[in-house]
Design a protein that fits this description.
single chain; 2 domains; 7-stranded mixed sheet; 12 helices; aminoacyl-trna synthetase
Length: about 350
């Protein structure tokens, strides 16, 4: 092959393939042509193999020519391939008749559970009253759930009918109230202290409209010099007004808890009938909301706090019960069934 023949072969290949690329009907045709020109046995590949027979001078002329042609053809193939790839997407889009000006589909947003909403409102108010967040374990030893809280060994609360026991060497229970946070906190911190402890508690009850084996409480504990029942009353009044509005009223009824003395049951005047009596308060005009009292000296002493110097109040309220009243929910099971039609209302 002479250099002249090489040059003319180059221009033949260039013309032939550029024309064919121009006419290629689809992606497959382009690929077929690419192999025919640039593949291992392709026309240009075969032609370039002849370069080895040229003299050094001829190679200097022919080599760059061949390489330039290879680059030009590769570029032409790539361009055509891209064209068809884009065309394929456009054809697909044209088929589905897409209107880009239409508004999008709404994305279903997550939603807070009504109990979380209620609990947040309660802890929000308490924190404004100066209570700090505290927590304790769900699986608790008898010492913190009962002993330190002055609940004697033979108290009915310690019976398996009321308490879930956890198997193991040490007697462990699922905490029956958030009062375990009282003993745990006072062991570690000395007064003045003012805490709220929201969380899950467990009792061996069966599920009905007003009971659940798992429910939530918020514990409150305030210990300092000269804390009295009067402080409890004013703070809880402020809390209930924060929750139910300025008309909220509370009353104390005498009660008994081993860890408080005196102990009280706290009622809130029914927010639905303003105390006149309705089906929510079962005609009473008042609804029982929480247990509370002045911290028993034994509890302070058990936790290393001198009851001659310090006194305190404590309360424990049921989150579900308050939430039911806030949200006008009649059945506690509503909270746990996770029926979206219900949950979405809050
Ligand atoms: N722990 C008591 C209960 O679960 C409530 C309570 C807490 C009462 C603190 C008095 C003081 O019923």
């Amino acid at each position: 092959m002479t250099i002249q023949e090489f040059k003319s072969a180059c221009s033949t290949i260039e013309q032939e393939y550029k024309a064919k690329i121009g006419q290629a009907a689809d992606l497959a045709a382009v690929e077929e042509l690419r192999v025919a020109a640039l593949g291992r046995k392709g026309a240009l590949t075969e032609l370039l193999k002849g370069l080895k027979d040229f003299s050094i001078e001829e190679k200097k002329e022919a080599g760059p020519l061949g390489n330039a042609l290879k680059a030009a053809l590769t570029a032409a193939f790539d361009e055509k391939t891209e064209f068809f790839a884009a065309k394929e997407i456009n054809d697909e889009l044209n088929k589905v008749n897409l209107d880009l000006t239409l508004p999008g589909y709404p994305v279903a947003k997550g939603h807070r559970h009504p109990l979380s909403v209620a609990q947040d409102r309660m802890t929000d108010i308490l924190s404004r009253l100066g209570f700090e967040w505290a927590e304790g374990p769900w699986v608790e030893d008898e010492k913190h759930n009962f002993d330190l809280l002055n609940i004697p060994l033979h108290h009915p609360a310690r019976d398996a009918q009321d308490t879930f026991f956890v198997d193991g060497k040490m007697p462990l229970v699922l905490r029956t109230h958030t009062s375990n946070v009282q003993s745990r906190y006072m062991e570690k911190h000395k007064p003045p202290l003012r805490i709220m402890a929201p969380g899950r508690v467990f009792r061996n009850d069966s599920l009905d409209a007003t009971h659940s084996p798992v429910f939530h409480q918020i514990e409150g504990l305030y210990v300092d010099k000269h804390v009295s029942l009067a402080d409890l009353k004013s703070d809880l009044t402020a809390f209930m007004k924060g929750l139910f509005g300025n008309k909220a009223e509370i009353r104390f009824r005498p009660s008994f808890f081993p860890f408080t003395e005196p102990s009280v049951e706290v009622d809130v005047k029914c927010v639905f009938c303003q105390g006149k009596g309705c089906n929510v308060c079962k005609g009473n005009g008042w609804i029982e909301m929480l247990g509370a009292g002045v911290v028993h000296p034994n509890v302070l002493r058990n936790c290393g706090i001198d009851p001659e110097v310090y006194s305190g109040y404590a309360f424990g309220m049921g989150v579900e019960r308050l939430a039911m009243m806030m949200l006008n929910i009649k059945d506690i099971r509503t909270f746990y069934e996770n029926d979206l039609r219900v949950l979405k209302q809050f």
